[in-house]
Design goal:
Length: 479
């Protein structure tokens, strides 16, 4: 990728003009449209991930304090799995699909064709700095686009490693990396892209959407929010607690789909808290601070924010903290009201409020009071209870008896709804999101069946058209 230089008058004022010009020229050349190029890029991305598996996980650990095995799985393996799904299905997912036309169009044929959109901007967050930057990249390349990546400045080791590796593996005229924070992202967003994929907070999501609106650029907003959990008495509480502890304290709760709070029916409230205590001890030992499986809060800002949220509470589990290493123990708080700060914003840390609710109706009311969540987790073996959540709630995803994991299944679209964002990606859904699905219609010139529609509207034409319309609009067999 050519560096910004003084060959272009614009580049003097705009450090990204040359880079963006290259990405656009490459796209217009048509090189990225062919399936061979797409396959080569995906294979190169896969090589990059497997040859630098150690370095990528180490960088994520260094930046976020993530345990290494967790980083390998969530940062590296998830991207490889995504690339594999795209490689295995590339032709099928990018191919066109026939569409049947009504009688009035005949003779004619129609199909839906996937056209790459052009130059995509991917802005990544810090909490899964590799996965949430490179999974959208995989989909964007599979769809035949050129891509500019803007990693999060809060994960500097990952950012500089990605900036170093990407030009060594991927077509340097089709994929570029710009490092930096808000200032760089703002400068980039002043340019016209053909699609922007943003993963991050609701606050910045609004800024990104406003900037994209200037160019009428479509956006995928992968935002956060409060993902609720419901637990009733029909379940095996020990397993539920183990799964909740795994999903909540993974990356010390700094996961967009982490269970944010638990609503539990009164008869199993105390038993669930006891099982959570037991599961935390089993996972991280007597002193989680010494556990190599337990991470750290990303920075002082977030650490202080979390302590602020805990102010005035009396945790039933955990609560211990050590600012010098940004350690906050796995913490469970009970008895908080809906007006407490913990219930007003996304927690994004290792604090789990457990609330008593009378049953499904009250749980649904609590959830409805907030924007639609990214994920909703229901632990119940009762088919009627499950069906009420399916029929009466709206969320990015709904999972029964399993938190977090749906996010890594390439077959399932990942994305929010309402306040948790919009647009969806992963697997086939990435191809749909990062392509334009264009209808292509073709009609022979002879016989000219349109002749009856051309003016002038003679008496005979009106008569025949009227007969046809009356027949087509007549009574349906099933109506
Ligand atoms: P953030 O919004 O602070 O930053 C995200 C990205 O936006 C970074 O690359 C940052 O440099 C950039 N940015 C910052 N200010 C900007 C500005 N003014 N204009 C343009 N870009 C700007 O988010 P974060 O703290 O990195 O991530 C945490 C949030 O992300 C949480 O809310 C979490 O729930 C959410 N999240 C969502 C998903 C998802 O897939 N839905 C995944 C991970 C995280």
């Amino acid at each position: 990728m050519p560096l910004p230089d003084d060959r272009s008058g614009d580049a003097v004022h705009d450090p990204y003009a040359v880079t963006l010009d290259t990405l656009r020229t490459t796209f217009r050349s048509g090189r990225t449209h062919g399936l061979d190029w797409r396959r080569e890029q995906l294979q190169a991305l896969r090589r990059m991930m497997s040859e630098h598996r150690e370095a990528l996980s180490a960088a994520a650990s260094q930046d976020i304090g993530k345990p290494r095995p967790e980083a390998e799985l969530a940062e590296v393996f998830t991207v490889v799995q995504e690339v594999d799904a795209l490689l295995d299905n590339l032709e099928r997912w990018t191919g066109s699909r026939k569409v049947r036309l009504p009688l009035t169009f005949q003779p004619a044929t129609a199909r839906l064709q996937h056209r790459p959109k052009g130059v995509l901007l991917v802005i990544g967050p810090w909490n899964y700095p590799v996965q949430l930057l490179l999974s959208p990249l995989a989909g964007a390349l599979a769809a035949g686009n050129t891509v500019l990546l803007k990693p999060s400045e809060v994960a500097p080791a990952v950012s500089s490693l990605v900036a170093d590796l990407v030009p060594r593996y991927l077509d340097p005229e089709a994929v570029a990396v710009v490092e930096g924070g808000a200032a760089e992202a703002t400068a980039l967003l002043a340019h016209r892209f053909d699609h922007v994929v943003f993963t991050g907070s609701q606050r910045v999501g609004r800024i990104v959407m406003r900037a994209a609106a200037e160019h009428l650029t479509p956006v995928t907003l992968e935002l956060g929010g409060k993902s609720p959990v419901f637990v009733d008495a029909s379940v095996h509480l020990r397993t539920v607690a183990q799964r909740l502890v795994w999903g909540k304290f993974l990356n010390v709760g700094q996961t967009c789909v982490a269970p944010d709070y638990v609503m539990v029916t009164p008869e199993v409230h105390d038993a669930l808290v006891d099982e959570l205590r037991r599961a935390i001890r089993a996972a991280f030992g007597r002193d989680p601070r010494r556990s190599s499986d337990y991470g750290r809060v990303v920075n002082d800002l977030h650490f202080d924010r979390l302590l602020g949220l805990l102010e005035g509470t009396d945790p039933v589990i955990g609560g211990e903290h050590e600012r010098s290493e940004r350690y906050l123990a796995p913490t469970v708080v009970t008895g908080v009201g809906l007006d407490h700060a913990l219930m007003q914003e996304e927690i994004f840390g290792p604090v789990l409020p457990v609330l008593r609710v009378a049953g499904v109706t009250e749980a649904l009311e609590v959830v409805e009071a907030n924007p639609h969540p990214l994920s909703f987790y229901v632990f119940s073996e009762d088919a009627q209870v499950r069906s009420r959540f399916e029929e009466e709630s709206l969320s990015g995803a709904l999972a029964f008896n399993l938190p977090v994991a749906h996010q890594s299944a390439p077959g399932l679209p990942f994305g929010g709804v309402g306040g948790s964002g919009f647009g969806r990606y992963h697997g086939e859904h990435s191809i749909q999101e990062f392509s334009h699905e264009r209808p292509v219609l073709s009609k022979p010139l002879r016989p000219d069946t349109l002749a009856m529609l051309y003016p002038p509207s003679t008496r005979w034409k009106r008569l025949v058209n009227d007969r046809v319309l009356t027949r087509l609009m007549g009574v349906r067999k099933d109506a």
